[in-house]
Amino acid sequence: MRSLPASLKQMTDITSLAFLFIAFLTGIAGALQTPTLSLFLTTEVQTRPVLVGLFYTGSAIIGIIISQMIASYSDKSGDRKMLIIRCCLFGALGCILYAFNRNYFLLLTVGVVLSTFGSTATPQLFALAREHADKTGREAVMFSSILRAQISLAWVIGPPLAFALALGFGFKTMYFSAAIAFVLCSVVVWYALPSMPKVKQTTNTPIQAPRQNRQAVLLLFIVSSLMWTCNGMYIINMPLYLISELQLPEKLAGVMMGTAAGLEIPVMLIAGYYAQRLGKRRLMHYAIVAGLLFYIGLFFFTSPWILLVLQLLNAIFIGILAGIGMLYFQDLMPGQAGAATTLFTNTVRVGWIVAGSLAGTVAELWSFHSVFYIAAAMCLVATLCLLKIKVA
Questions:
Q1: pTM
Q2: Of 181, 268, 270, 306, which residue is least crowded by CB atoms under 10 Å?
């Protein structure tokens, strides 16, 4: 009888390790695709900057619609485990389409739909992790922070690897690698993650809507969307800015993204440790200030080593937003883990909608560098909105 608790503890540890490994795999799949997308569209599909921005905008709009439908279903009924598996397999199909197709409109429609399912695996994974943590008595904030750190770890490896594969072996090899990551992820999910099916609800009340703190959730949605817009404009324009305007090596973009992601890991862990003591709202303030200083720094510095040093500020900006922002939504929406997590994820997509429109248009009319001024202004607006939130 004494072996039973030990076995249960071992199973819990194995399950937790599986969560971490799957988060890393989904992070790798995304990190192989996102950093090089603007370069792929420009060089392989041969589109203008404004169409590159339109692609990001269209992707984000489709992503919001699909992910909200999945979130609504997952919170009412169904098994998140099976949803994650299906999303990963659709994501793999999307990668294969990107590997072989160079038709802009086919990529913008079918390709984006498949890719959206792939990216939706991540919020569902976090929602399942939150439910698993609550059920097993784990400390949810720290567990989610460590889980999110795995995605940052993937982004340490992913962007440099993506540029190396794309520039050295071609985009076909790069997208095949992402497809393999998705397939492997689905296999691990099938064998290692717990099933937590829900009893189908008979009520017709829309579960996506926040049941509590609606004004705070709305303001937090605006804050997060503005912050992700800044990051989106940076990711879209930064590779093209380095190559076209600064005449710097192409691989520097991947190194910069990997450096920021590596620095995000200790930022997330430290933020998760101090979240209870300092409060999530104060940490979000720190993140915005770091972001403001980062984009101001991009106004004045063009030296590669200074650009790498500035990634510390970028890491604080994104590390706190990605780790604490999601938990802030979950705290404001108790009992709605799937809806809260997907709502946070949709702030990323809203950010891409605005970022795609602005980044492409500004680059077409002025320069790639001009978007950093807009990003700094958005940080100031986000600060004002965050001050209006009274729930810490």
A1: 0.68
A2: 306
